[in-house]
Amino acid sequence: MQKMLIEGGRTLSGTVKIGGAKNSAVALLPAAILADSEVTIEGLPQISDMNALSELLQEIGGEVRWDGSTVHIDPSKMISMPLPNGHVKQLRASYYFMGAMLGRFKQAVIGLPGGCYLGPRPIDQHIKGFEALGAKVTNEQGAIYLRAEELRGTTIYLDIVSVGATINIMLAAVLAKGKTVIENAAKEPEIIDVATLLTNMGAKIKGAGTDVIRIEGVESLHGTKHTIIPDRIEAGTYAIAAAAVGGEVLIDNVIPQHLESLLAKLREMGVRIEEKDDQLLVIGGGKLKGVDIKTLVYPGFPTDLQQPFTSLLTKAEGVGIVTDTVYTARLKHIDELRRMNAPIKVESGSAIVSGPAKLEGARVRASDLRAGAALVIAGLMASGVTEVTGLEHIDRGYEDLTGKLTSLGASIWRDEMTVDEEEQTKNS
Ligand SMILES: CC(=O)N[C@H]1[C@@H](OP(=O)(O)OP(=O)(O)OC[C@H]2O[C@@H](n3ccc(=O)[nH]c3=O)[C@H](O)[C@@H]2O)O[C@H](CO)[C@@H](O)[C@@H]1O
Ligand SMILES: C=C(OP(=O)(O)O)C(=O)O
């Protein structure tokens, strides 16, 4: 097991290239199950979620070939194998095998998904959608069984705006008979990206990116080539890091419009940002003012940037209040930030940050992916050395985080943990 060490107090400067969007990638790979010939996807992030999904695709007979950040998936020999355990537990997005396998084979057996624990993460809206399309869904000993004679298009109103349910229902509906309408759909850019791949495969989808998506079922889908959108959350993380420690960071391969809610808040704090076509220049270093944030579905402030933003607020003057309305319990990073002397208290479910504070290096544990990013940013700001464990979470979603930060001038590296440290981590 490894830990990450950060010697804080350095500014960041230079250019960082953003990878493909994790939350798009984790749906694009399973979407290939629906094709009858090879699907090629370019620009994918090199993260552990990609390895887990590749393994799952291979388990059901897919031929998966990686060439750098490009994957070639030949789904023609796939069969409907049960996937009750193993890699399914490693990531949240294994739930996309439900929609894709149901769409292609009209049946699937998939274990309950893993991923970051952010409080309860039910999948009732996914199941509501599959049932409305005609599937019988049962939960037997921790695995979801889905079976359908045939899938028939219908109108599905989502009670909660859900990224996963919107994409999963799209995956199941593209090969269903007739027309499916998803109302109260999520509007995240990743949904448009998945709809674009499916459309290039021959699907008929209208309205992705709005809250009503209309799908006309087709008989079959074919192979295609697709380039993924950049990761707005990775880009946002580097923007926050640059604001936190100062310097000039050029974030390359980003769609600035995908980050408007974050950029507005950074500007409100006093950070200078220049937007270019596919780049953002973030100039940190000045005095920052505390602001409040409330996470919302897209285009609101993304819950996935809430934790890193909380670290940034410790540097600002005055009080900043952080409320996560998407995942109300996404607060596990707070206790760890407090170990680093962060002046944060939790009241009525909101984190109240009173800055500015001088953070101090400490031994901390990442409980989930973005908690990890929050702790790394805190480590960059802190005096002394910060040791971060729980790297398996960070590796699920950040491509070469230490390499990219090192190239920007940070002092950050990975080291093997001693046996004692591993024991302490397991028991903590
Ligand atoms: C792989 C992926 O894309 N992960 C992202 C996706 O997760 P994920 O797709 O799992 O998140 P959802 O958009 O579904 O969740 C939004 C809210 O709806 C609730 N809910 C969701 C589905 C359901 O059937 N029932 C239900 O109650 C959830 O508990 C949560 O409170 O969107 C989240 C919200 O932007 C992000 O934090 C995750 O990074
Ligand atoms: C919560 C996240 O991912 P997942 O849904 O894959 O657990 C995230 O990307 O912040």
From TrEMBL:
Active site location: 116 (proton donor)
GO function terms (MF aspect): UDP-N-acetylglucosamine 1-carboxyvinyltransferase activity
Localisation: Cytoplasm
Keywords assigned: Cell cycle, Cell division, Cell shape, Cell wall biogenesis/degradation, Cytoplasm, Peptidoglycan synthesis, Pyruvate, Transferase
Keyword Cell wall biogenesis/degradation: yes
Keyword match rRNA processing: no
Pfam families listed in its UniProt record: EPSP_synthase
SUPFAM superfamilies for the chain: EPT/RTPC-like
Domain Enolpyruvate transferase: residue ranges: 7-405
Pathway assignment: Cell wall biogenesis; peptidoglycan biosynthesis
Residues annotated to bind UDP-N-acetyl-alpha-D-glucosamine: 92, 121-125, 304, 326
Binding site for phosphoenolpyruvate: 22-23
Class of enzymatic activity (EC top level): transferase
Residue numbers carrying 2-(S-cysteinyl)pyruvic acid O-phosphothioketal: 116
EC number(s) stated in the UniProt entry for this protein: 2.5.1.7
Similarity-based family: Belongs to the EPSP synthase family. MurA subfamily.
Record NCBIfam families: murA, PRK09369.1, PRK12830.1
Function summary: Cell wall formation. Adds enolpyruvyl to UDP-N-acetylglucosamine.
Protein's name according to its UniProt entry: UDP-N-acetylglucosamine 1-carboxyvinyltransferase
Organism annotation: Aciduricibacillus chroicocephali
